[in-house]
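Training component of the fellowship. As part of building independent skills, the fellow (R.M.) carried out the full modelling exercise for a liganded target. The chosen ligand was 1,3-dihydroxyacetonephosphate. The inputs are recorded below so that the supervisory panel can assess the work.
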Amino acid sequence: MQYSAELEKIARDLAGGDRGILAADESTGTIGKRLQTIGVENTEEHRRAYRDLLFSAPDVSKYISGVILYDETIRQKTADGVAFPEFMRQNNMIPGIKVDTGAKDLVASDGEKITEGLDGLRDRLAEYHKLGARFAKWRAVIEIDAQRPSEYALTTNAHALARYAALCQEAGIVPIVEPEVLMDGDHDIARCFSVTEHTLHTVFNALYDQHVVLENILLKPNMVISGKKCAQQASVEEVATETLRCLKRAVPAAVPGIVFLSGGQSDQLATAHLNAMNAKGPLPWLVSFSYGRALQAPALKAWQGKTDQVGKAQDALLLRARLNSAACSAGYTVDMEKTS
Ligand code: 13P
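Fellow's submitted model of the complex:
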């Protein structure tokens, strides 16, 4: 693959300038689960209205550089009839698209997962580019337990991530490479470190083998963190130190940016961890966020599906977006949680 200055610029615009990415690419099933928590029916109009309120929050582009959309959403419009990708372009945000079709059972494994979506991907990417997408996302899911992950699950998922990334670059789209080592389980932070390090080495080997240009990707990793059920939860400082130690070993400096997923961390912890990492700079890459739940959860709760609560919901999103933006330059303090 040829290096592209245009793709590197998109990657740097997405991860730099103290801005980050809003992941709003939940599949119809997943957004249905989120809407159910506030008692809202999972209809196309409700999904559109919810996404509309997020994208049109006043001045959200001060903090949000790009938005990851789902196939349905990239074809939807604002209440005023402007296609979402066009609306984003007009408002200084870059539209992106989730192109994987989900994690399925990996054949001949003991219930591990493989992410699907390679069939027809070249044609789908061409269409998404026409619709305005300039970056994409593919998420591989790696589980930890006493036996997992197997080498088989790691290599097949890394192979698919690299196939996807090369196809994106061919189509003029920046691939976000997302190998997510899940927080589920009672493992400690040391085990998360070793699995994440091994996963990243496997992924970067596959990217190299398949001629992916590292200057033209973004990496979306998990943080190195204690399992959710681990009795001894690592501190913010420890998470920041161990995550950076792991990433420095495994992620070449040619990669322009790292945009973390939140993975089920609380909103505040996801912000505090990002802040603590950026406080340890200078770092070899831009370090920012590509959060789904950690940006959206308070907004969803404030909205409750009610038109007269849209403003409140937008304020909730803006607060999280602003604090995560502050964390990109280590300017976040817990006191800022109270200021609005
Ligand atoms: P979370 O931040 O909720 O983990 O979502 C980010 C994402 O896009 C996962 O693929």
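The panel noted the following from the submitted structure. Residues 100 and 117 are 5 Å apart (CA to CA). The chain has a mean pLDDT of 98.
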